[in-house]
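User: My instructor asked us to take a sequence, write out its structure as tokens, and then describe one feature of it. I'm not sure where to start. Here is the sequence I was given:
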Amino acid sequence: MRNLFSTRVKIILVIAALLTAALAILSGVTNTTVPDLIVQGILAPFKAAGTALTSTAEKYYGYMFRYEALAAQNEVLEERIAQMEDVARQADSVSRENERLRALLDLKATNESYQLVDAYIIGWSSTDWENTLTINRGTSSGIQENMCAITANGEVVGLVTSAGPNWAEVTTVLDSTLEISGTIATSGYNGMVRGGYVDGHETLLQMNYLPSSAIIRNQDQVVTSGSTVYPRGLIMGYVVDAGFEETGVAKFALLDPAADINALEQVFIITQYTTDTPTTTTGTDTAATESAATQATTPTTAPVEVTSATLPVGNVG
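Assistant: Let's start with the prediction itself. The structure tokens for your sequence are:
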């Protein structure tokens, strides 16, 4: 045991001597005193830890600074994107408006007698049996009940059923309460067109009272027959199917509406138009009979003569 202790002491003394010699040599080389070297050796780990901590803090600060800069840049970019999207929406709106105006010019060129008031749709109401639109023009713009609403392409939208100073409600062709006299343009067959009551085909119109011998073809165009409310030749829809009514004595046709009611932004109200009105003559007093006939809405069996008259919109005919 004594020998073991003596060996340990010897080892410690040797190490101490070597450290002393190393410190002395290092002190001579670096011109630093031994106590300073001891202090530096003790503080070295702390300096390393401090350096690492400082480096980490600098990195974190740099990250935060870059994050704030990126956040600010991202906010600017989002604002620019929003502005660009707004410009794109406005451009789309202007493009659609230009298309409607070009179509309207064509419509007016074809029907010079039409007096139209444009209006934007501000509300919709739709149920199984009812389909109406609310527009932003009313009586102060010359719009009254029983005036026809159309698109810029001359497609029937519906009928004004109520109006206030700066609004009006349009009952559309999809509404089951609206019934319009129509004609198949290619064949001349007449019938009554209604909407909103065909099971399984709620978005279609149905044209009833067609002759049982009528030849009905797919995509036949159906137009208004003409009345004191609806000018002749307005497009109502296109035939997509046909069949016999329950009685078996007449046919019906299903129509795809020409106007895409649910996608409309703007409509045009026909406040006045000129049409051909049938008049009758007796052969004895032609002038008097023609004057009276211009106010009639139903022709007689006498010979028919056609005259031109400007009709304010009246009751459904």
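For the description part of your assignment, you could build on this observation: Residues 115-279 form a domain with the Thrombin, subunit H fold (CATH 2.40.10.340). Try explaining in your own words what that tells you about the chain.
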